[in-house]
Amino acid sequence: MVFLFVVLLVSFGFGINLNEAMKIALKNSPYLKVWKERMEKFEGMKRSASAFPNPELRFESGFFTTTNGQGSAGRFLYLLEYSQEFPLWGVRSKRKRIVEELEKAFMNLYEAEKRKLLGRVYTNFYEALYFKERYEIAKKNYQLSKELEEFVERAHKLGQASSLDLLRAKRERRLAQAKLKVEESLYLSKLKELGAVLGSDVRKVEGKMKSFPELPRLNLPELPHIKLLKFKIRATEEEIRLFKALTKPQVGGGFVVEDSEEGYYGIRASLSVKVPLFYRNQGEILERSAEKRALLQEIRAKELELKAKLNSARERIKALKESLSEIEEKALPEAERELTLALKGYREGIVSLFELTDVKRRYYELLQERLDLLLELQRAYAELISVGGWKQ
């Protein structure tokens, strides 16, 4: 019901926040549905692994005839043979354990892919929010440029502003209007990208760029990226045990029912043993042993890769927050005060339009720089989420 309510909100044009976007992605993403369908294959693999071998039936029939002094004579002969292989040495249980370990590995792969998707959703959401904020900045810039144009027009009519100032004010307003249209189209484009990831239409996003998630403490050996390799190793070890078990004599039994020439019917028991005299699965065992060693090396490589990725993201977050603090606490307040003084000075005839335009440009450049830093911060957090997961 909650999910349907969220979808209805989106359909009627209300914005979604980050938590709602994450929930929609987990429930509705086509990407995750693919992995869920793939998980169903293990049910069939378990049945195949634990199944008892099918018996073999052989039926023969023939007609024999002979000619003697009394004329020709003949009769039908019949033979029915039943044979059954016995899966000794724990072969079925070993095969089942292989499937179980592979299933656990796949479940961790699914968890890793889910975290990867959540990191992508997080990135796309904040990119959409970033362009929404850019659109808001462009709208403020346009409104201020329009107000200045109107002020200059009135001053020009009164002979208090030059024609050059009027042309410059009109140009600034046109540039601001064109910028506003571009930012609006970019914002709508990012909403479509987010909707494609969520598998749902998105009309608007709600939230604050300066809102950072709480991340859980990460233990590398417990990450799904590492655990799936450990389960693959356990499956490989079970395969080695299986091939060693198959090097032992494989026993089968059965019985034969036949019709003899004298008209008698007989039944005989049979026992067959497949003796591994010339080949004892050395190739398969060597292959699996090499695969196990490769997986152990892959674990070490993956741990180093994840550790470097996490440390890099944390260092970037630290550096970006310092730069952001510098802009918010010093540069931006000073630029805002300068813009206020420049506007007042222009109305009083102390500051020229050229000087005012330059101050206004620097102020909006600082707003954009702050927004760029926030986007880079959110992208760094997205990298942490793609590895460590999302804590709601």
Give the topology:
Blueprint lengths: L1 H10 L6 H11 L1 H10 L1 H10 L5 E13 L2 E16 L4 H67 L5 H36 L25 H23 L3 E10 L5 E10 L7 H66 L5 H36 L4
Antiparallel strand pairs: 1-2, 2-3, 3-4
Helix pairs in contact: 2-5, 3-5, 4-5, 5-6, 5-7, 5-9, 7-8, 8-9
Q: How would you describe the overall organization of this protein?
A:
The chain is of the alpha+beta class. It has a single domain (2-64, 76-309), classed as Outer membrane efflux proteins (OEP) (Up-down Bundle), CATH 1.20.1600. Helix content is 69%, strand content 12%. A 4-stranded antiparallel beta sheet has the order 1-2-3-4, with no helix packed on it. It is elongated. The protein starts with a helix and ends with a helix.
Name its key features.
single chain, 392 residues, alpha+beta, Outer membrane efflux proteins (OEP), 4-stranded antiparallel beta sheet
Order of strands, widest sheet: 1-2-3-4
Elements, N to C (H/E)? HHHHEEHHHEEHH
Radius of gyration: 38 Å
Q: Under the CATH scheme, which architecture would be assigned?
A: Up-down Bundle
Q: Oligomeric status of the shown chains?
A: single chain
Q: Specify the number of helices.
A: 9
Estimated share of beta-strand residues:
5-15%
Shape: elongated
Low-confidence stretches: 1-13
CATH superfamily: Outer membrane efflux proteins (OEP)
Number of domain modules: 1
CATH fold topology: Outer membrane efflux proteins (OEP)
> Major beta sheet, specifics?
4 strands, antiparallel
E-strand count? 4
End-to-end Cα distance, whole Å, is 19 Å
**Helix percentage range:** 55-70%
Name of the top-level CATH class = Mainly Alpha
